[in-house]
Specification:
Elements lengths: L1 H14 L3 H17 L2 H21 L3 H16 L4 H10 L8 H18 L3 H8 L1
Helix pairs in contact: 1-2, 1-3, 2-3, 2-4, 3-4, 3-6, 4-6, 5-6, 6-7
């Protein structure tokens, strides 16, 4: 629910050309990601990331896009390579965490798509390989 609210707020702020508000909401999104457990981090990225990127793109905030993508990648990877993410998410037990690897890789695909959309192919290739 928090992710959906944040995505709508970003849409409205970008629609009304409120750069300062968009930047503030993006910072809030990253802080919200840091406070959530791993599984919820993936869900938030999957719900909010594309709207964040669209809002920043609409306002021509290319540096902010790069910074956001790097911050989300740091959160998702947690300083590890993708192979370790696969192993880390497989360790998760229980029915509520059964789809954890799928959510993790879906988040990484969102990030790779963001890199590709903005012509930052080298960063995307590292995730897609």
């Amino acid at each position: 629910m928090q992710g959906q609210l944040l995505a709508r707020a970003l849409f409205l702020a970008a629609h009304f050309d409120r750069k300062d508000t968009v930047q503030h909401l993006v910072d809030q999104f990253v802080e919200l990601l840091r406070t959530k457990p791993e599984e919820q981090q993936f869900e938030l990225i999957n719900v909010v990331a594309s709207q964040c990127l669209r809002s920043l793109r609409r306002l021509h905030l290319r540096d902010e896009i790069d910074k956001l993508l790097k911050r989300m990648q740091d959160i998702v990877l947690g300083g590890q390579d993708i192979g370790r993410i696969r192993n880390r998410t497989k360790v998760a037990r229980g029915p509520s965490r059964a789809d954890m690897p799928g959510k993790a890789f879906q988040s990484l695909l969102h990030l790779a798509g963001g890199w590709l959309t903005f012509g930052l192919n080298q960063q995307a290739v590292s995730l897609l390989d």
